[in-house]
Amino acid sequence: MTACDINDPSLAPQGWKRIEWAGAEMPVLARIRKAFTETKPLAGVRIGACLHVTTETANLVLTLQAAGAEVALCASNPLSTQDDVAAALVEKGIAVFARRGEDEDTYYGHIRSVLDTHPRITLDDGADLVTTLHRERPEQLAEIAGGTEETTTGVIRLRAMDRDGVLKYPIVAVNDALTKHLFDNRYGTGQSALDGVIRATNILLAGRNFVVCGYGWCGRGIAMRARGHGAHVIVTEVDPLRALEAAMDGYRVMPLAEAARIADFIVTATGDKHVVDAEHLAVMKDGCILANAGHFNVEINIPALERLAENRHRPRPHVTEYRLADGRRLRLLAEGRLVNLAAAEGHPAAVMDMSFANQALVVEYLWRRQGQLPVAVHPVPAEIDQEVARHKLDALNIAIDTLTAEQQAYLASWQEGT
Questions:
Q1: pLDDT for 276 beyond 80
Q2: Where does NAD(+) bind (predicted)?
Q3: Residue among 120, 102, 109, 116 nearest 44 (CA)
């Protein structure tokens, strides 16, 4: 039997239906899987993956399996696992260690179970797998040929490891591929975060003050979609260039200490800690809704919220309402975890198609170049980025122009002028 720790194996039939539904929206990954099935570029390679266990991830894992890899998978967030998907993958021979709602000890126990398989390549979403490997299993580091990282938060952590001289194997920052962050982070997070907020609350956004903390690609997407719902969008930032861009894009920009006083919704998307802090909680109006679209549940200072509250209760499945001593009610969604995955289904498959196409091709690239890449956080090779974009355009039946020989020569020369 396949090694696993999942909630309910009987959910596999339901999981297969949803995996196939998502797969129909992932034509680029399907093309890669077809090619991998024939060439088997990862034959016998052990892969350890710490990713959100969703229908889209299932299609990536099945693509790697079709390439000949032996995959072990755990969750990258305690609330992001889709239990029916986990059951379906186990049925297919994937070692899955993931239970929706698992506690922190179980979460890290599952990461260790993946490391017990002695992977040669790691796939990470937030860098918990990589950091656990470096802290607890240094003797295994020599076995690793390379790894990938899916998220902005994870890339930040890995670059810090690299700067501190503790990173011990090369990692490719898949998050930084143009075909990843321009689409997954912006359009994926924009749609799925709003989906999570709306599913959790069923409260009308139109006419409400909707605060977005952070104007990176995820924040841009959330702000864009909230404005599309008729909300009055306010952006808070610490980066002057991003703040200026938000202002030029037509949003109000102000410090969070001011925005918190008038906010109906506050959504964080920064990758940092305690963005919403005690000083902001102290001035929020009654009924303010707090949600996080960043990777970890530290962007909202939940311990400070707990200290301020006299009591709390659950009026809806993904809403915790905290009643403060002065009578105000503050409503936290999805326990401060990723609202798009904890309260909804995560990014649409069509954008994850490009992100996971990058993952699959980068894994192949890493394995072909094992021992050749220096220890560092590497960008996705431009040729992979371009290949994914071409495949996506082709799948959408979109044709584009090509440069003529004359145009190519002009762009490569300096002789011609005015």
A1: yes
A2: 151-153, 185, 214-221, 237, 293-295, 340, 347
A3: 120
| Structural domain boundaries enclosing 226 | 189-342
Q: What is the pLDDT of residues 68-118, one digit of tens each?
A: 999 999 999 999 999 999 999 999 999 999 999 999 999 999 999 999 999
Please tell me whether residues 162 and 235 are part of one structural domain: no
Residue 407 lies in a domain: no
Confidence (pTM): 0.92
b/e for 6-39, b at 16 or more Cβ within 10 A? bbeeebbebbbebbeebbebbbbbbebbeebeee
Known binding-site residues for substrate equal 54, 125, 150, 180, 184
Of 302, 323, 342, the residue that ends a domain is 342
Binding-site residues, in ranges, read: 54, 125, 150-153, 180, 184-185, 214-221, 237, 293-295, 340, 347
Tokens 């659950």 -> residue: 314
Domain total for the chain?
Answer: 2
Residues 155 and 25 in one domain: yes
Q: Are 87 and 378 in contact (CB under 8 A)?
A: no
CATH number of the domain encompassing residue 74: 3.40.50.1480
How far is 289 from 233, CA to CA, in rounded Å? 14
Element (DSSP H or E) covering residue 205: none
Residues 316 and 373 in one domain: no
